[in-house]
């Protein structure tokens, strides 16, 4: 039976989280994977012009982290990221997402802070997230009841290394 109206994706936000250089390798988790914790040191969440996200411009602040569980048997990093920030109007933003990244050569270069690490392209990696976003600004209360999916890539500019996501709203 065919689905009469499959879900649609609309690119509404762009998210960038700056990676800290210190990663804590906390060893093997009791279920087998290894825990790696990387601090986030800034970044942004911006709305895409012409979408429901238009007008959102938040700066992420230091204090968030990525609590990765790395499964060596599948070369997969299971993501658990939490970060926060403020808009230019002083409104609060909180972002939490789970997801996964199949590690490849580009990921290994980024995670080891190799000078050879370069910005990659969205869609180049098997890298997905399911962000939950909370915003205190009444104009963006709709995000609390919206399903999002993110597609990741690596970003490098000068000394800044970051994870970046195209964030899509799932609609009917």
TrEMBL record:
Superkingdom of origin: Eukaryota
A family per Pfam: DUF3237
PANTHER family: UPF0311 PROTEIN BLR7842
Protein name stated in the entry: Uncharacterized protein
Origin species: Aspergillus pseudoustus
